[in-house]
Design a protein that fits this description.
The chain is an all-alpha fold. The chain has a single domain, classed as Arp2/3 complex 21 kDa subunit ARPC3, CATH 1.10.1760. 74% of the residues lie in helices and 0% in strands. α2 packs parallel to α4, α2 crosses α6 and α3 runs antiparallel to α4.
Amino acid sequence: MNRKFFTPKVLVITGIIIFAALMRLLPHYPNFTPIAAIALFGGAYLGKRWLAYFVPLFALFISDLFLGFHGFMIPVYISFALVVLLGNLIRNNIRIATVLGGSLAGSTLFFLLTNLAVWVGSPYYAQNIGGLVACYSAAIPFYHVGMLGDLFYNTLFFGSFYFLSLRYPALKRA
């Protein structure tokens, strides 16, 4: 059994993820971040399942150490773990359509889970269907920006890795 851990592929993918996590620390338009793209990309390309979860979530955690923690961290991390799972699902069929679908699904999943948590855990919304609708309605502008950010960063990460793997065939190997 080959336990070779630091393959060129793992190093390049981890480097892209760490770079993206550092980009989160730079000033940016609210919700236009690379985090969901990190999760989808890591899930799709990091061969070992534990590594596919560890690297993106650890990168998120490290950037959160600098940005600060808040009361809704658990739903955020669960959302991104589920986006890693989406990446795992497209792992053997990485195409423009599957990355696009994974990106849109990840954005929607994050929107639904985190805003449900806001509705449940904040005093700003009534705990009824009207409050839930108000919570989701107020978050729609952030959803649109987040979706655009996810599409942009997924295009950047998946596209960059694709072109790098054409130039360096060793990156295609697991």
